[in-house]
Design goal:
Layout: E1 8-12, H1 24-35, E2 40-44, H2 49-52, E3 58-61, H3 71-84, E4 88-89, H4 102-109, E5 133-137, E6 147-149, E7 162-166, E8 170-179, E9 182-189, E10 199-200, H5 205-217, E11 224-232, E12 237-243, H6 256-274
Parallel strand pairs: 1-2, 1-3, 3-4
Antiparallel strand pairs: 5-6, 5-7, 8-9, 8-11, 9-10, 11-12
Length: about 280
Amino acid sequence: MPAVPRPSVLFVTDLSYEARGRRYCDEDIHLTARLRADFDLALCHPRDAAALLDRFDAVVVRNSGPVLHYREAYEAFRARAAELGSRVYNPLTGRGDMAGKQYLVDLSRAGYPVVPTVDRAADLGLLPEAAGYVVKPKLGADSVGLRFVTVPELEPGADGTLLVQPRIDFRYEVSFYFVDHDFQYALYAPDPERRWVLEPYEASAADLAFARSFVEWNTLDLGIQRVDACRTADGGLLLVELEDLNPYLSLDRVAAPVRETFAARMTASLRDLLG
């Protein structure tokens, strides 16, 4: 009896992408080595993904870098995936960073526990008083275009394109990692001046309820999500980012059994995507 062909997966990553304090390529090299046990796998740069989509059963978007560095290619990828009905992981229907930063404005207006965020001059008065404020592009990433100001402001004509937030006095930042809606692990940066130096974090029931509320708010039944938050001076948590496109996983910061559990759960999730 002939062998049943294995599912083929196109793994989209930028192995040359550089980030402060991290080597994103190492994570994808190790993760693809694990996934090859279950799938026929090929790697490609995000600029090449649209042209290769029709040759694979599924496409996994991983550490492909900030979209603003290749926006035209990314839009072509999304259009081609829609045209072909491609199975994309994460599915391209996310409401978090995958769709830009508008969700921070929407969640702030709706009263969710997020860093207060506005995108229009008329709403600047809704921000709390703070020692300083952050202005950043709504479609930005990795601090590109970010600037600090003492008074909240938006330049004429900038409505809808920039975000303004107060600078939060926080104790530390913490990230919660999910596959589908299943919590996997949490990491935190105990030193706010060294945000890239992460350590395992023991999440409480209240922490997980906070993180799950945003995973449930999103529309993704399948995929990897990272909920980034800050622990404020009064002990509460505020959402900083809901990363649902290509979240860096910091798998090198967790124990080997946790990495294996994550890889096994991701494999099962991919099989669910493939049907």
